[in-house]
Amino acid sequence: MKFYLDTVGCRLNQAEIERYANQLRSRGHELVASPGEADLAVINTCAVTNAAESDSRQKIRSISRAGTPQIVVTGCWSTLKMEESTRLPGIHRVVPNMDKDELVSILLMDEFVDQTKHADSGSKPFERIGGRTESRVPIPGPRLKTRSFIKAQDGCNSSCTYCVTRLARGPTRSRPISDILDDIHGLSGSKEIILTGVHLGAWGEDFSPPQHLGHLVQAILRYSDVPRLRLSSLEPWDVDEEFFQLWENPRLCKHLHLPLQSGCSATLQRMARKTTPEAYAELIRKIRSIIPQIAITTDIITGFPGENEIEFQESLDFVRGLQFAGGHVFTYSPRPGTLAACMPNQVPYPVRKGRNALMQSVIREASYSYKSNFVNSVMPVLWERAIATNSKGFSLSGLTSNYLKVETLAPSNYWNQITSVHLTSVEDSHMLGRIIDQ
User: Fold this and answer.
1) What does 214-238 look like in DSSP terms, one character per residue?
2) How far apart are CA 435 and CA 381, in angstroms?
């Protein structure tokens, strides 16, 4: 049977879709690069913003128009808006988030799948998935990646007033170290893995006795040989000076994504964030003193309810002072069911968008400055994309350990290889480089 897999939203969604891919391949089914080739499509949806919800609906409609006979949806939007999602064209089943880890088992056993139709397709009989996969192959089509996303944790116990993800994902749930290592050991050929979760820094809190994310990181570095380990988003209150000592191991990528959301103390209080600008700035100072050249990126929300011009300017100045290596700026989007959606003094949308543009400008300027520090240096790059050119060479794009995007032209295809690169210049969102002869 032929499957098309796609996702909207976060790295956790990406990790889940990759796990589905491995489970399907382990049962002899085929993954295809376009929905028109598929017998069934699986879409992992997102609800973090209005735009993400819209993207989820548009993707489903697009796949239906492509002629895919059956569509299965899961993820935050379809969980929160189950009735609405079932009315979209082509939908045969919605698998809510609490059941999504068993999605492949569910859909392969589901009576709506016509097994006889595919009796001669060469696929193995539909049966419950068990055990781990033998190897990892990138998902064809838009999900083609060399790096592998591994789900370590799901759910969240925090109460940030703007966030709908905790409503869609439920309470925090950590995967055992043994299960995570099983996934990693099945990633034959991957040069980098990224640990993901809704609240990754809360990994292990629900164990008895409790553990810390540092225990998981140490286990992965000790019991696997993957060249690179990268961590996805971490809340600033979950990490401390002892945790940063782990970066003495060069396999741990020099990149931390620490969401700030606002540089204004009053705004952070309304958001119910467990930090202050002062505490956040001190954390950044400590990290940079312990891990030189580390890239620190962040998330910022503009136009949160009650944010006046004074508060926004305070946030803007704070972000400018921290000189982030990059970041995502989100225009506040009221999410039904959250406290923030009911707060007074909602900021008009044009004002929110205008503040977003100003904050983006500050982030871009700081990002350019950070990249400039590495001009004329030599750094290892994992080549993630390789496109053949008319000159019989290849256009390569990849990432350094500290999340610098690098592009170059080369006579050979270095896809999924790590090579030393002389970084020559900064070109807006990326750097140019030259591969040093191997």
Assistant:
1) HHHHHHHHHH---SEEEE----GGG
2) 9
Sort residue 251 into left (φ over 0), alpha (ψ -120 to 50) or beta: alpha
Contact at 8 Å (CB) between 214 and 243?
yes
Which portions of the chain are predicted below pLDDT 70?
A: 110-145, 438
| Alpha carbons 97 and 168: distance in angstroms, whole number | 7
Amino acid at 135: S
What's residue 140's pLDDT?
Answer: 64
Contact 299, 330 (CB under 8 A): yes
Residue 190's pLDDT is: 87
Looking at residue 22, what is its pLDDT? 87
Residue 53 CA to residue 127 CA, distance in Å, equals 33
**What angle, 0 to 180 degrees and rounded to 10, lies between the N-to-C axes of helices 349-372 and 309-322?**
10
What's the full length of the chain, in residues? Answer: 438
Helix axes 309-322, 277-290, angle to 10 degrees: 10
* Residue labelled with tokens 């944010």: 307
Alpha-carbon span 243 to 229, nearest angstrom: 15
Against a cut of 0.70, is the pTM above it? yes
Helical (H) or strand (E) element with 176: none
- 88 φ, ψ (degrees, to nearest 5): -70, 155
Let me know: does 152 contact 19? Beta carbons within 8 Å: no
SS3 100: helix
Token pair for residue 395? 């256009």
**277 to 33, 203, 301: CA distances (angstroms):** 45, 25, 14
Report CA 288 to chain centroid distance, whole Å: 24
CA distance 277 to 314: 10
Residues 6+ apart with CB under 8 A from 423: 374, 375, 376, 377, 378, 379, 404, 406, 431, 432, 433
Query: Could you say which DSSP state residue 171 is in?
Result: S
Residues near 19 by beta carbon (within 8 Å), at least 6 away in sequence: 151, 183
Q: Are the C-beta atoms of 391 and 425 separated by less than 8 Å?
A: no
Q: Is there a contact between 128 and 200 (Cβ–Cβ < 8 Å)?
A: no
For residue 268, which phi and psi values (nearest 5 degrees)?
-60, -35
Report pLDDT for 288: 97
